[in-house]
Amino acid sequence: MSNNTSVVGGKISMRKINDQVIIVQILVGIFLCINSMLIATFFTKEIFYTNMRYILFVTTLISDCVYLIISNLLLNLSYFAFPMQSWSCIFFFLLSSLCNFVTPLTLTAMSLERYVAVCMPLRHAELCTAGRALQAVLIIHSLSFIPFIVTFLMLLSSVTFNFFTQYIICAVDAFILHRWQDHVRSAVSQLYFLVMCILIAFSYVQIIKVAKAASGNNKESTRKGLRTVILHAFQLFLCLIQLWTPFIEAAVLQSNFSLFIYIRYINYILFILSPRCLSPLIYGLRDEAFLLALKRWLFCCPFKANMLKQ
Q1: Model pLDDT for residues 46-56, shown as the tens digit of each residue
Q2: Cα separations (Å) of 104 from 68, 144, 166, 254?
Q3: Measuring CA to CA, which residue among 234, 226, 232, 279 is closest to residue 68?
Q4: Is the dihedral of CA 250, 252, 254, 259 positive or negative?
């Protein structure tokens, strides 16, 4: 009797986990489709790829797409306990770590762009050109590369060459072999967290000052800039919490494996998928020019192309 109960209980538990995996696949598929449509829309008009605001926006979309694909792949491989060679895992970890930091850093840059647009409107055209946007993207990716370099150098100091030919379950924890490495990684993440929070808060406070002094059309424009920065701050808050989730999961893993699986699933939904669905909302749906271009691309261009072919 007890054996039957345990078997049934095991089946129920496994079905719940499978349902969770299916839900994640559906959500990832939806977000990838939406982001792909927005990326395609970006290239339909010259005003988008010559404007710093939209260049930074599409940078977050591309980064989010790559991160969703990589993180979802690693999540499934981990769920099915599929081993891979360490060097392959390091490559996936490189892409994941890079995109993980690109999004919050780009959001910070977008908030600073709104600060320049609202607080320094006469210099906005000079400071926020397409060329400077590409420079900003290069700087963002360079800064995003640093946390991976730190983790990789710590790994090299602790392992031999044989480690890179071993088969492991790919996760960032596989590269943290000593407690001091975890502390260093935590310190780097917290430093990024602090700097980005300061820059976001600075933009927010300065825009509020301008909003109080503005009037008429300027006041409405300032309010829109303020709302955008607030949404960026919320999105950034979710992204930055994600930098802390590995440490929370590692602590839970030592005490309760079942709770670890549940928390990891919740963290993935709240702090990986959720922030990635806010980017389309902030600039894809709230921006009138971009929304209009998206509608034309979705409802006009495909039909015109088919009519021309016929």
Answers
A1: 888 888 988 99
A2: 15, 10, 33, 29
A3: 279
A4: negative
- Three-state secondary structure call for residue 44: coil
Both structure tokens of 202: 């600075």
Q: What are phi and psi of 194, to 5 degrees?
A: -65, -45
Say how many residues make up the chain: 310
Which of 113, 102, 116 lies closest to 192 in space, CA to CA? 102
Q: How far, CA to CA in Å, does 221 sit from each of 19, 106, 215, 238, 264?
A: 45, 22, 10, 26, 41
C-alpha span between 162 and 254 (Å, rounded): 27
For 215-262, how does the pLDDT look when each residue is reduced to its tens digit (9 = 90+)?
666 666 677 767 777 777 777 777 767 767 777 777 777 777 677 777
- Residue 207 and residue 219 in contact, taking contact as beta carbons nearer than 8 Å: no
What angle is formed at CA 276 by the lines to CA 24 and CA 264, rounded to 5 degrees? 45
pLDDT of residue 179: 81
